[in-house]
Amino acid sequence: MTQQEYDLRPDAERFDLFGAQVTLLDAAALLTAAGAGPVELFHGCVFPPPVRDVRLTIRVVETDVVPTHRFDAEVRSTPGGRASGLFALGAVGPAGVLLARRLAAADPTAGRVVAGAGRVAAEATRRLGLVAPAPTVVTDPDEAGAAVLREAEALGLGPDIAHRETPDGGYTSIVRGSVASDAVTPAHLRAMIGLVLQAVRELAGDTPEPRVLRGRTYLLGRPAGPVVTATTAPRSETVTLDMVGGLDEVVARFREIAISFRHPAVMARWGARRPQGILMYGPPGTGKTMLARALANEVGAEFVEIRTPEILDKYLGGSERNIKQIFRDARRYREPTVMLFDEFDSIISYAGAGGDAASQAVNAVAGIFKQEMNTLIEENPNVIVVATTNFPHRVDASLTRSGRFDIKVAIPLPDERGRAEIIAKMIRELITKHERSGFRMFAEDVDPADLAALTAGLTGADIREVLRRVQLAKAMAEATGAGPVGPISQHDLREGVAGLRQG
Predict the structure, then answer these.
(1) For the whole model, what pTM was predicted?
(2) In terms of Cα–Cα distance, which of 20, 173, 177 is closest to 84?
């Protein structure tokens, strides 16, 4: 391993869209990676309500003419979202955005109205003899939104924008664009990001002036992001599998699970049953809980964490009632849901052992858990159960047999290469978040491979603690005026590792 293997400062572009600060990491690499398989952006990001989920997928498709980069985005809202302004043009049916704009170009009067959107959509629909819902009238031009559409058209993306109402009363905005692969550039990706954020604004009712995205930040790109290990990432919806370091095989298996959730029709055609349960086991600090959260985001699922106090009850029969209620609720979930039983061994431990009252209570809970898992997937295939434990030997094998927990994954301490990847990702995260013009956080001599050789036996949580201590030392030195404070160097990080080992 060499320092050159770990580029700590990938090409990053920062730009403002509708008041949000967007950082796009190595756009050219993203476009290249799409040739090997779909690349997804935005999932795990937090958006203003009622927007609940945003996905932008880049893929390369082979056509009869030339390979084409295709951009597909979906913006979903909970009940209460609405489509208005320029994007409402996509809701009028076959007329669509581009047809309405062409109509406006041919009619100067309509051209003045296109920024207001509603009347142009109605006119396009009338001339085609279609029936459309009453348009949303926006009295002031949404020039920012119009500029986004103009840029996409000028680049030849040919955006196709549509809306559909979901059964629960929400909306899904669908945005598509494509360009020949030999002509695609980072500018096309930036334009597509603009279209996606405009769709977010529209579903949030943010016209004509940008408001709801103001002050928000979005970091997009596979090369960087916070590495996921227990206690190293916040308990939030922002963690994704792209952020996981040092666990390539686990990430690959979780991506397969996510694919099975995204293609239920294919699963049904082959009679294939998705995994019902996943058991993750390994030492503390290796990222089991955060991996469960990342899986939920990869699937686009809700995340429900079941904690020990929610089950165990000191009163006779209380624990049994609690576990039954948890599974009763699970059978009613209508959205894909990852249900996590963290520290599983503390909930169900040594099933079958002992004859005292406490052991019998534990056995009763274990027995009910088995029964519930036996029928859960048939009654609600939208739910996947994830359990984590630091002590797999404390969990009876009958609880975790195939059919209940189909996948059992060891989450080990990271090896040297895994530690180097974790260190590199953590440092990239800090650089992206904190470095600005005139402030350099890390020196050029920082070498993740060399640091990995010094950190044998440490978890990702330990490595995060080393960085926290070094950051704090630098900040305190500057705050107290102890002298010139340079960037964090390899020497600083080596001392941080030594300090952690000493306690």
Answers:
(1) 0.56
(2) 173
